[in-house]
Design brief:
- Helix 1 crosses helix 2.
- About 0% of the residues are buried.
- This protein is an all-alpha fold.
- The protein contains 2 helices and no strands.
- The radius of gyration is 44 Å and the shape is rod-shaped.
Length: about 130
């Protein structure tokens, strides 16, 4: 009888285990899907935060770049104003800038620049160039 009692006990335990599994599996599946849904939601929230922070960084960068350009333009404006004042006005400054540009590009190629004063105050370029 000992063998039959042990077999009956095993069958009963197996039936109880199978019953728990049949009841517990759907509950576990629901719990598992809830956890997957929460994880997907949190990932979407995190991705949204990252996109917002990246957009904010781009905006900050653009604002700082604009501020740097404004500061550079103000510096250039101030330098031009000081130079124009020291040369006696904007006309003399433009004349100086033109002559300076000619002096910088004079040695390039076979170009030869000769400056001659004229009534208008502008130099005559390449005076005396002969036709080849």
């Amino acid at each position: 009888m000992r063998g039959i009692g042990a077999t009956i006990t095993m069958v009963v335990l197996l039936a109880i285990g199978l019953g728990i599994a049949l009841v517990g599996m759907p509950t576990y599946n629901v719990y598992s899907k809830q956890m997957k849904g929460k994880a997907a939601y949190e990932e979407a929230v995190q991705n949204r935060r990252i996109r917002v922070l990246e957009a904010q960084a781009l905006l900050d960068s653009a604002e700082l770049t604009a501020q740097a350009e404004i500061a550079r333009a103000r510096g250039t404006n101030e330098a031009n104003r000081i130079m124009a004042e020291s040369l006696g006005g904007p006309d003399n400054y433009l004349r100086w800038a033109y002559i300076n540009m000619l002096a910088e590009t004079a040695g390039q190629g076979d170009r030869q620049v000769i400056y001659l004063p004229t009534e208008a105050g502008m130099p005559i370029l390449e005076a005396g160039r002969r036709a080849q």
